[in-house]
Design brief:
This protein is of the alpha/beta class and 272 residues long. Helix content is 25%, strand content 21%. The chain contains six helices and nine strands, in the order E-E-E-H-E-E-H-E-E-E-H-H-E-H-H. Strands 1, 2, 3, 4, 5, 6, 7, 8 and 9 form a nine-stranded mixed sheet that branches. The protein is globular. About 5% of the residues have low confidence.
Length: 272
């Protein structure tokens, strides 16, 4: 197996990517999807990314989901050309099983992170979710279950949810599935988030198996874009997610609709 660390960055945030890289190893490869706005196009990549285990793939685009899809396209393309990036330094995939780990430009990994992730895929499972460790002195990232379990349904409510940077999957199992570009940071329609829940729900609908493993494999500060305040707008986004994941006439959609009504009644002065 080979672990592909899919790092998404935007404009100048690429400067922080070298600090994420661990010492080179034969079974780990980094795919850096450098999303650029028009005015940033043509910027040079950091010299620290000139490593044989780093695939650098710039492109002009908007939205985190589009960035994640670009990472997936890099791995799906066998001829070394990706979308409109014009990149020419992309490796041809060999016959090894490709494991993908979703990453951002502000994460860190521990000495045994990659070994733990690869070991989890020695079982017959398509997707594995791990834990995020926060820096010393900060609260736990979220309330995690203590025991491992097979995931049958993606949670939309409560203190436990899945975050992108704790998710790894078999590329062969995911196949042509993509992130919904209507959701996620930078999206025109729902920039508040939701891309993780939708992607994982689509995977389960396709019949993929998913397991939660209570092991810390990635570091990230407590604060993140997913911890936005409870507003009417966010409730409406959750309704859109519920409709997208479970259908407009589902129990999830009904619960989400009630939550919107509750927010409207209890926060009448918030912007709708």
């Amino acid at each position: 197996m080979r672990l592909n660390v899919l790092i998404c960055c935007y404009n100048a945030s690429v400067e922080g990517v070298p600090s994420i890289l661990r010492p080179p190893r034969e079974d780990v490869r980094y795919v850096v999807s450098h999303q650029m706005s028009g005015e940033y196009a043509g910027a040079k990549r950091p010299e620290a990314l000139d490593r044989p285990d780093v695939v650098y793939a710039p492109f002009i685009g908007r939205g985190l989901s589009a960035n994640r899809n670009h990472c997936l396209d890099v791995l799906r393309n066998l001829e070394g050309k990706v979308g409109n990036s014009g990149a020419t330094d992309l490796e041809t995939l060999d016959n090894r099983e490709e494991i993908c780990l979703i990453a951002d430009d502000d994460v860190s990994y521990f000495g045994d992170s990659f070994d733990r992730i690869l070991a989890a895929f020695e079982e017959e499972v398509d997707i594995v979710a791990f834990r995020i460790r926060t820096p010393e002195g900060e609260p736990q990232f979220k309330k995690y279950p203590d025991k491992a379990f097979m995931v049958k349904k993606i949670p939309l409510w409560g203190e436990f949810y899945f975050s992108s940077i704790e998710i790894a999957f078999r590329m062969s199992a995911v196949g042509s599935l993509r992130f919904d570009e209507d959701f996620g940071v930078g999206a025109k329609k729902w920039p508040e988030g939701g891309e993780e829940e939708i992607f994982l729900s689509d995977c389960l609908k396709r019949g993929l198996t998913m397991k939660y493993v209570p092991e810390y494999v990635v570091g990230h500060p407590y604060m993140s874009s997913g911890k936005s305040p409870k507003t009417v707008r966010k409730a409406r986004m959750m309704l859109a997610i519920a409709c997208r994941c479970s259908g407009p006439f589902s129990i999830d959609a009904f619960v989400a609709f009630l939550r919107v009504i509750f927010r409207v009644l209890t926060m009448p002065f918030r912007k709708l």
